[in-house]
Specification:
This protein has helices at residues 14-28, 43-57, 72-80, 93-106, 123-136, 141-149, 155-173, 180-193, 212-224, 249-264, and strands spanning 2-7, 33-37, 67-70, 200-204, 227-231, 268-273. The chain is of the alpha/beta class.
């Protein structure tokens, strides 16, 4: 188990350095499974770049099926697609809206502030977005109750109480649906229990930070894989990321979080630096 960081400012070619790390892992373990993980919006570009690398330097690798490029959610599908739990009904935006409307109707007598807002344009979408933020941060209704206990009474507190009432009911309603959070948590559990994951190698690019759910998954990759490799736009290692006005604050905080995670699990951490400038097409 190793945590490798590829650091450097944005003008340097992080991907090239990541491919060098991949080549080292592949040479040592050619029958391993190699996963490049990127945000959805750059998945196609990343696949093209990897294919170009193979065509240029490693023609023999192109025929292999053990090198994949996925988003986090697609990686969950890859590993869990045959699981009965994974094949639950998907929670769509439309289904979420229907569930939330039903919740408001069922609790109408308890909702003094929100009951009359259900038919206002954008209200349902706003609530769904807020609940998704809570879930991404792994915020539970009890956490909100605890925070409310320290507040004075007032319209703001009453509003949050009603919001939390709906949020708790919403969480109960979606337990039987396949959500993105459900997928990523299920994948983390899978990696924590599956035998042979030491032959899995992960290369994460294009992120400056992770949600709480994603961080939990990344931790599972870290403690169970042969190596976890993460590229961050960061000019140097940072161990005290307290200045939120700093341009590098988010990747610095991510670096510190992952470095601490590796230290707690006695995993070796190495820093590599992208040292070649990107080739401009202009």
């Amino acid at each position: 188990m190793t945590l490798n960081f590829v650091l450097g400012k944005n003008q340097f070619d992080h991907h090239k350095k990541m491919m060098e790390l991949f080549q080292e892992d592949y040479t040592k373990d050619p029958t391993g499974q190699f996963f490049f993980l990127v945000p959805n919006h750059i998945k196609f570009e990343s696949e093209v770049n990897i294919l170009k690398y193979f065509q240029k330097d490693n023609d023999s690798l192109i025929a292999t099926n053990n090198v994949q490029t996925f988003s986090f959610s697609r990686l969950a599908w890859y590993f869990l697609r045959d699981s009965s739990d994974y094949n639950l009904e998907t929670l769509t935006q439309t289904k979420s809206a229907m569930l939330l409307k039903n919740i408001v109707q069922e609790h109408k007598s308890e909702l003094k502030i929100f009951a009359g807002m259900i038919d206002k344009p954008g209200f349902i979408d706003q609530m769904i977005s807020q609940f998704n933020e809570f879930m991404n941060g792994q915020v539970q209704p009890d956490d909100i109750d605890l925070a409310l206990n320290s507040e004075q009474q007032g319209i703001f507190v009453d509003k949050i109480k009603e919001l939390n009432l709906m949020y708790g009911a919403y969480l109960e309603q979606i337990q039987n649906y396949n959500t993105n959070d459900f997928q990523l948590n299920s994948l983390a559990d899978f990696l924590n229990t599956k035998i042979g994951t030491s032959h899995y190698y992960f290369y994460i690019e294009g992120f400056s930070s992770f949600t709480a759910i994603e961080s939990n998954l990344v931790k599972s990759m870290l403690v169970n894989s042969g190596s976890l490799n993460i590229s961050l736009v960061l000019d140097q290692p940072v161990f005290d990321s307290t200045d939120e006005s700093d341009f590098f604050f988010r990747p610095a905080a991510t670096y510190q979080q992952l470095h601490d995670m590796a230290k707690q699990n006695r995993i070796v951490t190495r820093n590599y630096f992208a040292d070649e400038k990107r080739i401009s097409l202009i």
